[in-house]
UniProtKB/TrEMBL annotation:
<dbReference type="GO" id="GO:0003924">
    <property type="term" value="F:GTPase activity"/>
</dbReference>
<protein>
    <submittedName>
        <fullName>ARF like GTPase 16</fullName>
    </submittedName>
</protein>
<feature type="binding site">
    <location>
        <begin position="53"/>
        <end position="56"/>
    </location>
    <ligand>
        <name>GTP</name>
    </ligand>
</feature>
<keyword id="KW-0547">Nucleotide-binding</keyword>
<dbReference type="InterPro" id="IPR027417">
    <property type="entry name" value="P-loop_NTPase"/>
</dbReference>
<dbReference type="InterPro" id="IPR006689">
    <property type="entry name" value="Small_GTPase_ARF/SAR"/>
</dbReference>
<keyword id="KW-0342">GTP-binding</keyword>
<dbReference type="Pfam" id="PF00025">
    <property type="entry name" value="Arf"/>
</dbReference>
<dbReference type="GO" id="GO:0005525">
    <property type="term" value="F:GTP binding"/>
</dbReference>
């Protein structure tokens, strides 16, 4: 889907980027996609929430290890955007209330 994302950048105020936390083999590809989004001119003003999904599943790597592996603290420090992260399970509903709060807060400061 990555190649068609730019057609959605116009008027995009918030960006939710989901990482599959149960499958670290996809992590480097996710990181490349994320860096592409963060450097896109059309998304310079967007607020970004990076979701680590599927935390209900067992994994040989912790979310902290995954963040460290892609140097997420450095990415956040260098990005133009305001970036938050959350750990969720879309399956169990874990963390979803926090995502809704983030959306509310983001749109409150927008208007
Ligand atoms: N256990 C679990 N399964 C999930 C979660 N979110 C999505 N899924 C399941 O993951 C499957 C979709 O695969 P996914 O890797 O998310 O999508 P894709 O990579 O775009 O194919 C579906 O069967 C969903 O029900 C979650 O938080 N926990
Ligand atoms: Mg998948």
């Amino acid at each position: 889907m990555g190649p068609i994302w730019p057609s959605y950048y116009g008027n995009c105020h918030s960006l939710l980027f989901m990482v599959d936390a149960a499958n670290p083999t996809q992590l480097s590809a996710s990181c490349v996609q994320l860096l592409g989004l963060l450097s896109a001119e059309g998304l310079a003003e967007a607020s970004v929430l990076i979701l680590f999904n599927k935390i209900d599943l067992p994994c040989y790597m912790t979310v902290e290890e995954m963040k460290s592996l892609i140097r997420l603290p450095d990415i956040i420090a260098c990005a133009k955007q305001n970036i938050s992260t959350a750990e969720i399970s879309a399956h169990k509903g874990t963390g979803l209330a926090g995502v809704l709060h983030w959306l509310q807060d983001t749109h409150r400061t927008d208007s």
